[in-house]
Design brief:
Length: 284
């Protein structure tokens, strides 16, 4: 029987092709399933008191090891914020000590561009950040709303195509840019804090004196449909968070039976030292 013809390279060739295909598959594997919709940026609302600095978080969400990201944020026209900035301070990204950080703020155009690459300079050690499975703060927007700025909501909104050349919101995965498709903006909520009302505890009728008229006022509204005090907390003479008969009795003891004086603020007007459910709409 003749020996089968030798085909020394046929098997090896097929085998080599299989290895090549397998290798390519493995190389491509991390890229498979990278759906842009799984990547996103979310600007988190922050309350800002005029005259005080604020820090606004930008969260990222991603499903592959990232080597960096780029933010393109639209700012309201004439944004009333001094010293506007963005950084990776106070984030885990900051802990990676990124090689490349580029900020470009154009207040007139209403654009804030921020690019971050973890590993852009030699030695290249391939620093990446793995997905953590939930949104994570990747940047912090800081600034100060000037004193006297009226209450308002200022939208900071991730929008693709800002700047020139146009910049998109992306994550860097390997050598690819993955668009961040889940984009949601957040508001700088400018809020002047309410002025805390001052009162003298026991001075239910708000005439800056604590005397028998306050006991009568207190009994009147507690039992006889008299007017509710503008500053209920002033009527809470024993400062237990409730205005009731025990406060009238407390004041009687104080005024006529050498009892304990009302709790602070007393003698001098002030605010409640022991925050509770009872408030003061209007003080002295
Ligand atoms: Ca009084
Ligand atoms: Ca009370
Ligand atoms: Ca209190």
């Amino acid at each position: 029987m003749p020996l089968p013809e030798r085909q020394p390279f046929a098997t090896g060739g097929t085998f080599g092709s299989l290895i090549l295909v397998a290798l390519i598959s493995v190389l491509l594997l991390p890229q498979q399933g990278l759906i842009a919709g799984d990547f996103g940026f979310n600007v988190i609302d922050v309350e800002a008191v005029p005259g005080e600095p604020f820090a606004m978080s930008v969260e990222g969400d991603w499903t592959a090891n990232i080597g960096g990201f780029q933010l393109s944020l639209q700012l309201p026209f004439g944004l009333p914020v001094d010293d506007l900035g963005i950084s990776v301070d106070n984030t885990l990204v900051g802990e990676l000590d990124p090689d490349f950080l580029q900020v470009n703020i154009d207040m007139a155009a209403g654009e804030l561009i921020y690019a971050v690459l973890f590993d852009a300079l030699p030695p290249f050690d391939g620093t990446v950040m793995p997905p953590v499975g939930f949104p994570l703060a990747v940047a912090e927007i800081t600034g100060t709303v000037p004193q006297g700025t009226p209450d308002q909501d200022l939208l900071i909104n991730p929008v693709d195509g800002l700047g020139s050349p146009p910049i998109n919101n992306i994550f860097v995965v390997g050598v690819d840019s993955i668009p961040a498709e889940n984009l949601s903006g957040g508001y700088i909520q400018v809020r002047e804090p309410p002025v805390e009302q001052v009162f003298i505890r026991g001075d239910v009728n708000l005439d800056a004196l604590v005397d028998i008229a306050d006991i009568i006022f207190h009994l009147n509204y507690t039992f006889l449909d008299g007017p509710t005090p503008l500053c209920l907390d002033a009527g809470d003479a024993n400062d237990d968070g409730v205005s009731d008969i025990s406060d009238s009795i407390f004041l009687m003891y104080y005024l006529f039976l050498d009892g304990q004086q009302p709790w602070p603020p007393f003698h001098m007007p002030g605010t409640d030292y022991t925050p509770d459910g009872i408030g003061c709409e209007q003080g002295l």
